[in-house]
Amino acid sequence: MTNRLHTICQEACCPNQGECFSKGIATFLIMGNVCTRNCRFCAVTSGKPSPLDADEPARLAEEVTDLGLRFVVVTSVTRDDLPDGGAAHFARVIASIRKRSRDTGVEVLIPDFRGSDSALAVVVYAEPEVLNHNVETVPRLYGEVRPQADYRRSLGLLKKAKEFCGSLITKSGLMVGLGEKKEEIVSVMRDLRGAGCDIITIGQYLCPSDQHYPVVEYVKPDTFAAYEEIALGLGFKGVASSPFVRSSYNAAIYYAKALEGYQ
Fold first, then answer.
1. Pairing of strands 34-35, 45-46
2. Residues 6+ apart with CB under 8 A from 110
3. 89 vs 123: CA distance, rounded Å
4. 49: helix, coil or strand?
5. Tens digits of per-residue pLDDT, 120-156?
6. Which H/E stretch holds residue 170?
7. Residue ranges of the chain whose pLDDT lies below 50
8. Alpha helices in the chain (DSSP H)
C-alpha cells in the first residue's frame, strides 16, 4: 500500500493474505487500526483510537484506482467513540471510490453502530453493492467471545438494511470451532435467512495468540460441506464454507452468485 492505508488482512492475521495479495486484492481497514471493543477472538488492537483522517477516503479511492480493482471490500474497526460510529466516513469512502472509479463494486463490512438505524441508513443510502455485518458466533457464546456485541442487535441491523433497500445484497459470517454445536449453527442460519441475509461465510476460528479465546475444535471438511448444503437449502444465494474462508474471501464471486440467484 502506498497511501498510508491499513488492511484487515494484516491487522487480523488472515490466513489468505498471501493468496489475495498475490492477486492484487485486499480488504481495506478504515478509521484507524485501534478498536474501541475488545472481542476475545480478534487480533486487532483494542484501545483509544485516533481522530478520523478526513483525507482517508480520497487516498483509499486513489489506491483502488492505482491497483485497478474492479471490486473492493471496505471494513473498519468499531468506533463507539464516534456519535455515528463512523457511518458518514463509510459513506464518504464509497462516494470517493465512485467518483474515481464508477464501475468498481463496493462491499462494506460494517460494525453494529450500537443499533442506530440512522447511522445504518447513511451507509445503505450510499449504495454499496453488498452490506456485510458478521454475527461471528452463536448467541450462547456472545458473553464469552464478544461481550460488547448483541446477537439480536446484529440480526436487526441486517433486517433493517433490507427494509431500507430491498435490492441491497446483504451478507454475514460465522466462525466455527469455538465450542458451538451443529444445531446452534443451523439455528443461526435460519435466523439470518429470516433477516433476509443473502450470502453467508463460514470458516474455522484460528486463535491469534494464547491471550485470545482458545480453539475448542478443528472442524472437519465434511462438516463444512454439510453446512454449505444446509445453507443452500435454506435459500442463501451465496455460500462460502471451508476452513480458511474469511468474511471477504472471494467477495466478488459470491456477490455475482447472489445476483444470479435473483435472476
1. parallel
2. 75, 76, 87, 90, 120, 123, 131, 132, 133, 157
3. 9
4. coil
5. 999 999 999 999 999 999 999 999 999 999 999 999 9
6. strand 169-176
7. 1-24
8. 8-11, 17-22, 56-67, 87-100, 117-124, 142-145, 151-164, 182-194, 221-234, 251-261
